[in-house]
Amino acid sequence: MTLHGKLIDIVITYGDKVVLEKAKADIIAGTVIGIVGRNGEGKSSLLSVLANESHPSSGRIEWFGSTPAIRLLKQEDDQFKKEEIADEEWTYFSKWSVPQHRKYDDLSGGEKMKRRLSHVFAEKSQLLLLDEPTNHLDQESLSFLKKQMKAYPGTILLVSHDRYFLDEVASWIWEIENKKLTVYPGNYSVYRQKKEESRLTQQRLYEEQQSKIKQVEKQISALRNWSSKAHADSTKHEFNKEYYRVKAKKMDVQIRSKKKRLELELSKNTIEELEEEREVSFSIEGSKKKGNRVIEARNMSKSFKDQLLFQNASFTIQSQERVGILGSNGSGKSTFFRMLLGEETTQGELWKSEAMNIGYLRQTVFDLPEEKTPFEFFGPTDFETRGQIQTLMMNLGFSKDHWSRPIHTMSMGERVKLKLMEFMLDQKDVLLLDEPTNHLDLPSREQLEKTLSTYPGTILLVTHDRYFLEKLTNKLLVFENKTIRKVEMNYNEWTHKNEETSREIQLMKLETERQAVLGELSYLQKKDAKYSKLDQQFIALTKQINELRNN
User: Fold this and answer.
1) Number of helices and strands (H, E) in the chain?
2) Taking Cα atoms as reference points, which of 76, 79, 112, 74 lies closest to residue 96?
3) Which of 219, 320, 345, 393 is placed for a possible disulfide with 398 were both Cys, Cβ 3.0 to 4.6 Å?
């Protein structure tokens, strides 16, 4: 294996808090290294150090040969305003389906991500650092990203919480947990299996060591009792005092010897007790208002500058429905949310219930007051409220020092959790969730899924996480063919129906082609040169038709 470089005792701190301690790892050339860990564990900070945008508190990175050309794709980058486009980028724009003549600020979240991906891939660096590159991407774009990464000639370090994506692209996993970096060969599934095996082994060894400690301590306790008795006997008996004194001293020597052996063994090989895997706890109550309609659109249209997003859209959202919103990047999903909030104008009618209290989770989470601390942001008015908020923060995986840290020092995942705290404290009855799992670590995703499954209000959900979509929604709003239609079925049913429709269309095409071949064959004799070729074509078409019908 050719080494690109090494992390040597890297330490990363935030203020007085150490987030990564004495990290050691090899960067193997030509591989894809997935970096995983909880929100706030230092994953993005490590990429920043590798990109030389920040410096570790101590330790160093040693590169073999010359320092490689490095490019960093940040999770969210509101500073990316590049309007000059290199020739190589135009090629990627076409492959990514990025609008070529629109300004960066006018693009959707998914289009912005593809624009930034086009930029970093076009630069042909030797080391590519990608921080949550799958955020906002539709399925077609995700497939293309996989192909680009597999064909990339350099080395890639990738921070992601997308298990399926990591399984398909990663050849190594770096885990950051409890300030330590641990290296695992293989993809995400292999890493999880090896980690679980390691945890079970550690638990078994810990239990064996605890059992041995108890056994030795029991022996020491028995020796102490005998020693005390021997010392007492040496003062009671008039005769043989020396015998009891010598016996007591021997007991004391055995006690010291056993204690030293135990201390020596523990100093060489102390097995730590397994830390419980921290659980994250959300609880969004909602006001539990019941009515019929919440939102209704009639002949609704929307254009963005010179681009038509959708037109003649008519549908109704009922109270307590869970609606998944589907559409490719740039089809107008986030724009529709902004229309509901009154941030965008509407052509046609868009009616909203006056009673609804909307909570809106934006894709980028840049709408938080970054200079404020959580204490200043939530502004508890009394001691009891402050205690409730601090307890809520602890349940969401925050530590005590987060309470007084400015929001701009927090990871994107931690900011998403702060935003969700707003909803919990304000009892929203309609949630507009635009890619809510972006930036969240896996335990937080799973807990958010459980929470939303019991939420009594109305949910409108934009996500490219199919698993999340399948679990949480029972209706769909589909943005396609420049309009919006409501589908009264869940994602699985809709996908199955589309597959059935697609199969019927394909069967019709194959049947038509087969009938045309059969028609030509009926005019030919077997000795004709063209007959054999058409006959083989007929057999092949029949086989395809039978396979489609049997699947």
Assistant:
1) 15, 18
2) 112
3) 393
